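ok trying this again, last paste got cut off
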Amino acid sequence: MLLLELKEVLEGLTQRIAPQEILTFTKFLLLTAMILPVLPNQPFGQFQINPFKTWLVVVAVSTVSYGSYLLLRVTKESGILLSAVLGGIYSSTVTTVALSKRSVNENHPHLFAGATLLASASMYLRLTILVGIFNWRLLDLLAVPFLVLAAAAAITGWFWSRRPNGSQEELHRQFQHGNPLELRAAFFFAAVFLLILVVTKLLFSYMQNRGAYYVLGAVIGFADVDPFIMSMTQNAGSTTPLNIAAGAILLAAASNNVAKGIYAYAFSKRGAAGLQSLMLLILLALAGLIPFLWM
C-alpha cells in the first residue's frame, strides 16, 4: 500500500534520476541493509574472523566512497579544485591518475599539481574518519598527525594551484569517476581485507617483529592502503601493539603518496604538471615520516 501511494513520486524520480544512479543506490542498500544484518556477529576459526565486522569494514569504506561520489555528481561543474577534494575522499589514486591524464592537454601545470596535492589531503581526512569508526585508541595516536598532514597538504595545494599558469582559460571538470559500489569490487575488497588480516596476525604470532609490519605497509601502500589500514584497526590493541599499528599506517600512507607521485609523472607523459605533482607528493610523504619516526 505504501509503494502504491508513492507511485507518482517514484515515477517522478525515474524521470529525474538516471537509471544507473538508481541501480547504484539499490546496490548500496544491498550492501548495507540486506547483507550486513544477516551476518553472524561472532568470531570463527583460528584467526577469529568475525563476518559481521568484516562486512562492516566494507560498508564503511563503501559509504564514504559513495557519499563523495554523490557530491561529485551534484557538483559536476564545480571546477578542478573542488572535484579534486571530493575525488580524494572517493579515491585519491583514481583522482591523481585522472588529473594527470587531463593535464596532458592543458597548459595549467600549477593548477593540476595543486589539485593533485589537495586530493591527497582529502585522503588523510578519509583515513581519519575510517580509523575513528573502528578504533578510538588508534585514532588517539593518528588524529593529530593525519589532520596536520591534511591541513598542510590542503594549504600548500591551494596556494600552489593559485600560482600563474601558462593559460588563463577557465577550466571545468571533464573526468568522471566510476561507480564505487560494484559488487565484484566490494567482495574483492572483503577478500583482500581478510587476507591482510590473517597475514598481519601470522606476522605477530611467528615473528613479533615491527619491521615486518612496516615492510608490509610500505609494499601495500603502492597498491591500495584501505584493506591494510582497516586490518590494522582490527588488530591494534589486541594482537598488534598500538604504536606499531599506527606506525605501519603512517608508512603505508607515505608510500601511497610516493606511488601517486610516480603515477602522476607517468600518466602526464612527464609533463610539467606531473613533475610538480611528483615533487609535492614526495615532500608530503617525507612529512608523513616525521610522526612515524617519532612513534
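PB: full thing came through this time. Residues 235 and 241 are 8 Å apart (CA to CA).
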